[in-house]
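Take a look at the protein record below and tell me what you see:
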Amino acid sequence: MLRLAVWLLVSIVYIGFWLAFATLCSVAFRRAATGAAGRGRAVDRGDPVRSLLASLVAGAIAPTPAGATTEQVIANATLADNLARLAPPTLYSEATTVILDPSARTTSSFILTSQAYRAVQSDLPIEQSLLLVWVQVVGIVALTVVSFAVAYILFMRQEVRA
């Protein structure tokens, strides 16, 4: 029950982010249709584009040539993971997975064999799961606060001019 309560709190914060983002789009764009279209594109088509962009940027910064070493492949995968974590849906997905699944040991999309071999085979308590995802939760909260703050500043500048 505690895991469900924590998941509910994280979900409320995540929904709050999308509310803040919708408010920001409504204030930033003069026309309602333009703001709605921007919100729709971010929500509906964001995931495949976000993954593709993260992979392309990671490939440009930390390339993996044909005869790549293990370190180069790990550096590329780590960079792609970190770039994908700039998006709130990725943060929420990682947090949800770890909070609701006590057997989850990491938020990363790849695990080395040496890491899996040394992992404890029992379920994690909720405190340990929260230690794994505190960065994701803080990231979602920070993006929510920044979105509301930018929307408020833009709104106040528009009202002062009017």
